[in-house]
Amino acid sequence: MPNRIGHVENLLGFARRNFLVPLPEVESLEALNTRLAELCRRDLQRKVRGKPGPKESLLAEEQPNLLAIPSQRFEARRVETPKANSLSLVRFHGNDYSVPTAYAHHQVTVIGGIEEVRIAVGNQLVARHPRHWGQEHTEFNPIHYLALLERKPGAFDHARPLEDWNLPGCFTVLRRRQEGVLKKLATREFIKVLRLLEHATLPQLTTAVDYALSIGATSSDAIGLILRSQQERPVDLFSLDGRPQLQGVRVPLPNLQAYRALRVGA
Known about the structure:
Layout: H1 2-19, H2 29-43, H3 55-62, E1 78-80, E2 89-92, E3 95-98, E4 109-112, E5 116-121, E6 124-130, E7 138-139, H4 146-151, H5 169-182, H6 186-194, H7 202-214, H8 220-231, H9 244-247, H10 256-265
Parallel strand pairs: 3-7
Antiparallel strand pairs: 1-4, 2-3, 4-5, 5-6
C-alpha cells in the first residue's frame, strides 16, 4: 500500500507540473475537466523510460486487472445542519445564504458542492445558490423576501436583498402604470406580480408582462393568467403511426338525433 500511495502522489505531481503550469484560464470546472481529459489522452502516446511501448499499450495490459468504474457518481460535497437566523440567512463555510422567510429560525440541511449550495428543510429543497469561496459574503435571492414585503410594502424600495436586483425595463413600465391607477396600493400589487417568480422563470414572467402591457393589462391576476396560458403545453395530435393494432378500429359517428330529442324534451 505505501508503494501505491507514493506512485499516485508522483502521478499527481506529474499532472500538476505538466497540465496545470502555467495556471489554465477556464470558464468552469466542466471546461477544465474537458481540457485535462484531452491532455491525459495525449499523454497516453508518451513512452515511459525502460518500457517497451507507449503508455497506451501498457494501459491495455493493465485494464483486465482494474476494478470496474462505480455505477454511482461520487458527489464532492459538505453537509451541515445549521439554523436560519431572523434575517432568513443560513451560515455555511463562513458565508451567508438566504432561504424563504417562512423558514427563518428553522433547522435546515445545507449541501455544499463545488459550484452550488443547496438548502433543504426535511425532504424539500427550499433554496439553491452559487457557492462563494471567499469569506463574510452574503448571497441573497430577492424572491425569498417577497412574501414578507407583500405584508410590509413600505420597505420594498429600501430592502437590502433587492438592492442589486436588475429587472428588465418592462417591470419599471408596469409599476409606473400601476402607480397611476392604484396610487398607494400599487407597490403591493407590483410585489404580487414579482411573486409569480416563485413558480416561473424571469424570462417567462418578462414575456407575460410584455404581453400584458401590450393589451393594457396591469393587474397581478391578469399577468398570472397570461403566464399560466403561456406555460400550458399544446395538445399533441394523436397519431396511429406505430400502432397497427388500432388502425383497424372503427368508431361509429355519434347519433345527433338523440341529443336533439333530449333538447326537445328539456
